[in-house]
Description:
Strand content: 5-15%
Structural class: alpha/beta
Oligomer: single chain
Strand order of the largest sheet: 4-10-9-8-7-5-6
Amino acid sequence: MTLCSFDKSKNRIAEAKRYMPGGVSSQFRFGVSPTPLVFERAEGVYLHDIDGNRLIDYYMALGPMILGHSPADVIQAARDQYERGLLYGGQSELEFQAARLICEMVPCAERVRFASSGSEAAQLALRLARAMTGRSTVVKFEGHYHGWLDSVLWSVAPPADLMGPEAQPVPFAGSAGQDPQAGAHVEVLSWNRPELVAERLALGDVAAVIMEPVMCNSGGILPAPGYLQAVRDACSRSGTVLIFDEVITGFRAAPGGAQQLLGVTPDLAIFAKAIANGFSVAAVAGKADIMDRLASGGIVHGGTYNAQPVAMAATIATLRRLSAPGTYELMASRGHRLMEGIRGVLDRAGIRATVTGLPQIFHVALGLEKPATNYRDLLAVDRKTYVRLTTALLERGVRALERGSWFMSTEHDEAIIDTTVAAFEDAVRSVLVEQRA
């Protein structure tokens, strides 16, 4: 097998550092192995880089490209709107249509407000919750990510020696330069522990509980049976707003997101990524009595690019395609097949690992004997070996995230899955040989 080379990307990134810190525009693209890549084009499941490699993609832009790269219908919808106007500084019929689709698809969605990124949407949801309750405290969970802003970037990836006891975690700031006062009203709990949530909310002073309904960012962890409903009940008893961060699971887990799949309805939910297949769109959706405070409650929410018409056209095209019968069933079937293929390779090689999560977004964790239930369990993951594995896999033409996540799309067909499993098996062999040397 001829291995891919990435010398041109490596050199171009080095040159770009003269103008851009690290040669990238997001910290999550920085420091990847063997180098951040530079791409020329993409279609379907493939990325083409400047070294001439054609790579099977499981990054899927970290989740948005659920219909694959450059789907013709989404591109055409955007192109048609380009001819009519880019930005009006006012409303368009397209945003009304997009909002109606979301309200028809998502269980909690009685009203929708658009934004441009998941980080922005999270801030709006928290502001709404505080305005609704008149309270300040927000509860989040270890390992859950709700954007990079100061008020929520707490205990996303805390080191083991600074976490404190599980029954009383110590909030850990995720960035240098982060305002410590921004976390003054943020409390952190361990996830999948319903008794901890019930005990804290019983004090009656928490404005919001915010969580990923499936813990996708850190490790593909499903909620324990009954956990989401227990949190829902505790929030209802205490008058606390329950927020689901469905930036990843929204329109990926099911047409109505993880809340539809798992049967628990939050008060508010935030969406981004798969909502518009690569266009910059996010949304907050939720109960009318909360959302309508944006019209009458003195709450400020702005954004020059909110509901930009071209992006709204892409949103409509994406959601209509995802609403087609059989879409999720087919994607789930193929995702399960890939999960089983990867699990089989690891088992045959005698590598201790778990493959967990949803078939549309799953997680591979080396070093675990059983599926993790929360962030603390993930501290046992062998991340260094997994990075060597994903590097070897990339050299064999398959791009998967170093943190363990695998994003499926509607375009990953049976032949692509077979090719992926074969490449994964060869990559595993190469890593084992390297370890024995």
